[in-house]
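Could you help me review a protein record that somebody else here produced? Here is the record exactly as it was handed to me:
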Amino acid sequence: MIDIIKDAISLACYPASALFGNKGETVLVYHSIERTGSPDTPHKINLRAPLFEEQIKSVSRSGKRDMIVTFDDGFGNFFDNAFPVILRYNIKTILFITTDFIDGKMSFDAFFGGSAGVKPLSWRQIKEISGSGVEIGSHTLSHPDLTKLSRDAAYREISESKKKIEDATGRKVRYFAYPFGSARAFNGRIKQLVKESGYERAYTNIMGFNGAGSDPYELRRIRVYSNDNMFRFKMKVKGAYNWVDSVNILGVKR
């Protein structure tokens, strides 16, 4: 019901968004890209590979220069199903990795509704991806809610993950993505820790575009879900859904 209401309001916004809305940097956020298995995960983060390629082809054909594609967490299927597409269409990309996941110390199965067995990238693959021109960013050590940690624990999550990636790739890590990414997932204290750790930018999952006046430690991204058909995807890229994080529909928690 909520999705239907969102779609109806966004459809009404679409004509104006298509004409006037997309004026800033557009950053898309993905997670898992699979060739097999069900896309109907609880968080809708497991896209079919053919749909992903169709979306990237659309982005490439649009000619929009300030478009960035990002991936969170570091799922192994990125290497086989997303990386070749990114190289084929020469799309600017940032891969945000959770280092404990890469090291096999944690699982993201809960995000897929159970024992999905979704594997992480290897450090060898990450180094190859980095060498291709894809930026590797940090998504913390263990993907916690940073706002619930002590200052020292939060700083460790933010800074040590950066160092670990730099040691593995031999390249500076400039970008950070907040775990969960909603407006509740970070605050002024966390933003300051990100800045102190030496990051140049930090990304949220709050829907919207970024412009000259955007806070570099509170940058917005367009969330892409497994049930986003091409028409809904194009509406999102044009900004028709940018209102959703500003309004609490029917009192439902965002």
Remarks:
- The domain at 24-243 is CATH 3.20.20.370 (TIM Barrel).
- The chain has one domain: 24-243.
- Strands lie at 26-30, 32-34, 46-48, 67-73, 93-97, 135-138, 175-177, 201-203, 222-223.
